[in-house]
Amino acid sequence: MSGHRRRGAARRGRDRRARVLLPAPGAPRLRGTDRPSTAVVGGGIAGLAAATALAERGVRVTLYEREPSLGGRLAGWPTTLSDGTSVTMSRGFHAFFRQYYNLRGLLRRTDPGLERLTGLPDYPLWHGSGLRDGFRHVPRTPPWSALGFVALSPSFGIRDLARVRPAAALPLLDVRVPEVYTRLDHVSAHDFLDSIRFPEAARHLAFEVFSRSFFADPRRLSAAEMVLMFHIYFLGSAEGLLFDVPDEPFPAALWEPLAAYLRGHGVRLRTSTPVESVTPTRDGGFTVAVADGERRHDTVVLALDTAGLRSLARRSPWLGGSRWRERIQRLRTAPPFLVSRLWLDRPVAPDRPGFLGTSGYGSLDNVSVLERWEGEAARWAARTGGSVVELHAYACADDAVRDVEQKRLIEQLHLVYPETRRARIVDARHEWRADCPLFPVGGYADRPTVSTDDPGLVVAGDLVRTGLPVALMERAATSGFLAANALLERWGVRGQTLWTVPDRGRAPLRGAARW
Questions:
Q1: 330-360 pLDDT, tens per residue?
Q2: So what's the pLDDT on residue 142?
Q3: Is the pLDDT of residue 206 over 80?
Q4: How many other β-carbons are positioned within 10 Å of the β-carbon of residue 179?
């Protein structure tokens, strides 16, 4: 696998129609001793991207992160198992798709060939009814990707295609960003699929698996987000649906090297430091208050999750303007999700994939066998003869009982991989979280943009409206770079060049849609 990883991960993208976004012209970097300062509030992907672009161009950056470690929803922390082994726990599996151009560009700062990412051979999907799908053999380039999926998929055949209502399905084929929100933000993903008569089996194995990756039930998710997602990963990009994963836990593979890189560029990293308030000053700057005092900065990047942004806006009554603060307070978080990681005393079957998306198995949304790709888990498994298995349940009910749901998730694992019934759980960790953004029906207008009414205040994160075809981790990275670029343009400095998948459907598909 090592050789395969080196050959595949070094590519910068195969889609010739990928869109380049050039920054405003300017000087390569700031010079002199009187350089502006920026407070980056939040140390997740968005904040790290903003801090990187600013620091590389000479801005004096202080990054404030409330947690002890960087990475946000991709952070990791040490824990000790009952057998005495020190391991890293996290909030669970994340797929680094090949069309995540800007996130991968951030990681290239410390890993130019992306050697710390390894490619998984397929994206398999299983349904409880017995249907199975995958994308390993599906062509990557549209429109052949769509045709190949229909030809190869047991859940979506030619007869199913004939039942689809062509007129209602036009938005799937003729995606335009950001117009897709005008067309579809008022409809739920569930109702949109009903309207086009999308086949039930394919809905469960394709759309529902993907839509739940937004940590929301399709009945609550904006159809615009779902259609955009399908464009990004399937109909609009030639990168395909295969992906990479870090070959060690997130801190070792991603954030510790990037933290060293940022310190080398003069960034002051203040972890375990929640920001209490941000107050504009009369001279156009900002006062950032933390537990040990206040510090003035010329500009501020807010790179917080939904709850953090709402809370900071409430505690900062003069920040951003009253209408901006009102919109921020209307933002909502997605339902809670559960990540269960199990250390088993015996291995799962050797032919089990490293990652498996599931539907029809109750609340179980995917299964990962970590030793298939992660070095730390592989070393534990080799030493003990066991397996490290991770289970995800997205969009749990608000009134879910934790102990009950954790037991159910393990029972569902036994249905998917029956050999695990015989395994003893050496140790387990369960993470319950409810801090992902919700993209509800009709919610697009309330989401913040990168820019605010104050030119010195910008916002970044996966909740931000960018007007670009990006989602999830890539939206976080892209918005962080966009926030940095907005500040750099004020100072006459050239920002970060960005890339996205095409911002509209491919010509053959658009033609088919109009026909």
A1: 999 999 999 999 999 999 999 999 999 998 8
A2: 65
A3: no
A4: 15
Task: Reply yes or no on whether the pLDDT at 38 is more than 70.
Answer: yes
Q: Is the peptide bond before 178 cis (omega within 30 degrees of 0)?
A: yes
Q: Is 38 helix (H, G, I), strand (E, B) or coil?
A: strand
Alpha helices, DSSP H only, in 68-164? Answer: 101-107, 144-152, 158-163
Backbone CA torsion sign across 37, 42, 47, 48: positive
Residue 205 one-letter amino acid: L
Identify the H or E element spanning 458: strand 457-459
Q: Helix, strand, coil shares of the chain as percentages rounded to 5?
A: 35, 20, 45
Task: Calculate ∠ Cα 98-127-225, nearest 5°.
Answer: 45
Residue 442: left if φ>0, alpha if ψ -120 to 50, beta else—which one?
left
Distance CA 54, CA 407 (A): 46
Token readout for 429 is 């960790």
148 vs 289, more confident:
289
452: CB partners within 8 A, 6+ apart: 320, 321, 324, 458, 459
Phi-psi region of 467 (alpha: psi -120 to 50; beta: other; left: phi over 0): left
Give per-residue pLDDT as tens, 283-311.
Answer: 999 999 999 999 999 999 999 999 999 99
Looking up tokens 């004020």, which residue turns up?
A: 490
Per-residue DSSP letter, 98 = T
Q: Which residues, other chains included, contact 322 with Cβ-Cβ below 8 Å and sequence gap of 6+?
A: none
> Residue 20: beta bridge partners?
499
Q: What is the mean pLDDT of residues 148-174?
A: 64
For 379, residues 6+ apart whose C-beta sits below 8 A from its C-beta are: none
Which has the closest alpha carbon to 274: 251, 291, 252, 261? 291
CB 227 within 8 A of CB 168: no
DSSP 382-433: HHHS-EEEEEEE-S--TT--HHHHHHHHHHHHHHHSGGGGG--EEEEEEEEE
Distance CA 437, CA 463 (A): 6
